[in-house]
Model the fold of this input.
Amino acid sequence: MADLSRLALNTATVTQQWSLQDCIAGCARHRITGIDPWRDKLQKMGVAEAAKSIRDNGLRVSGLCRGGMFTGSDAGERYQALDDNRRAVDEAASIGAECLVLVVGGLPKDSRDISGARDQVRDGIAALLDHSRACNVPLAIEPLHPMYAADRACINTLGQANDLCDELGDGVGVAIDVYHVWWDPELKKEIERCGQRILGFHVCDWLVPTRDLLLDRGMMGDGVVNIPQILSWVEQAGYTGLIEVEIFSAKKWWREDADLVLRTVKERFKAYV
Ligand code: ZN
Done:
């Protein structure tokens, strides 16, 4: 079981209700130690102001969501993506984020070449590494469930992410989100293989049935994921960092009062993480 002092709020969990200012204040009010902001909210608040407020409230920043989307139909598109990723690295450095989370990108428009898309992802991360290493911002590849291979991320297993890390060297690791990887028969083995490479750990639950491919994640305890088991593997691999709660839930949690959501997050974290 995880200690509450390791809880971090991914701001997506209350994205409909709260601005980043509200999230920072909410974390302080509920004594939540860590936060992972999304870039749109960060930019809305202003990076410098957010950095100050995060510092003033003594919060750790488990990550910044998100960089990535490296794939594109032509060199121009891919260059734009790289440019935006460099800005994301700068933002992550400004707020003291412990990593930049990468949702790597799916198939370019009208493409059927998933292997080519994976090559583009590798090349995109490789091109970003000079800058991210210089800024001391580790890049965390987040493998996404295969149902997102076309539109969000063509890196779909932890094994693939590990292979990429082997190829790319220092400055790149993984973010393990139970929602995306819980089903993988190779999961335990691949977590062992990660070792010190684990940069983030994200939790929520897989609901049965899942009614929306993107926006129907469950609160811990409402689904079928054995979170403590996966966490125990992650800890055996050496991970001692923050544990982020990240729940996209259009029909349930985004409609609730955000303070109630945070209270529920804490209760469920104690019971199911
Ligand atoms: Zn995640």
User: Anything to note?
Assistant: The chain has a mean pLDDT of 98. The CA atoms of residues 63 and 99 lie 5 Å apart.
